[in-house]
Design goal:
With about 170 residues, the protein is of the alpha+beta class. About 15% of the residues lie in helices and about 35% in strands. The protein starts with a helix and ends with a strand.
Length: about 170
């Protein structure tokens, strides 16, 4: 089996989950399948979100190649885009982007589309620029609490008649 065929027949997504959304009726053609252009836009957005941290700033799409629509996407499917770095250049990054769906949001994942997207890092004037080396992440100290939403309970004083109640 050739490499490309093996990729298409894979049972697990390649790379990291970059985006997930629900296919809606507004995104479909008259036959009830989701527009390929809508899928391409999702892939482009997922690729942009993955390429931006590598570039250290703004990126633009310069090419899309080898896009293959393997199966239709239907209204109600959960659409997941996965990205993996294929090549990293001085000013550009090429990503393999795969789209997998959960039919009606459940069951086995099904690979529906794959492609290769190339992005170029650009400056404020839209001219190509070199990638900025990513800054190393600070090690998390044991005393530092994880960032998460906390429920904050405020003490309220209510006046009921002449009595005060603390809630």
């Amino acid at each position: 089996m050739r490499y490309k065929e093996r990729q298409r027949n894979s049972t697990e997504p390649k790379g990291e989950l970059a985006s997930r959304t629900l296919a809606m009726p507004a995104d479909c053609n008259p036959r009830g399948d989701i527009f390929g252009g809508w899928i391409m836009a999702l892939m482009d957005s997922a690729g942009k979100m993955s390429a931006t941290p590598h570039a250290g700033g703004r990126v633009v799409t310069v090419s899309v190649s080898n896009i293959t629509f393997l199966q239709p996407v239907h209204v109600g499917d959960t659409v997941c885009c996965y990205t993996e770095v294929k090549r990293l250049g001085r000013t550009s990054i090429t990503l393999d982007v795969e789209v997998w769906v959960l039919r009606q949001g459940q069951g086995e994942r099904v690979k529906v589309t794959e492609s290769e997207f190339t992005f170029v890092a650009v400056d404020e004037d839209g001219r190509p620029r070199e990638f900025v080396a990513p800054q190393p992440k600070e090690p998390r100290s044991a005393s530092r609490e994880p960032r998460r939403c906390r429920l904050q309970i405020a003490c309220l004083t209510l006046k009921v008649g002449t009595a005060r109640h603390r809630i």
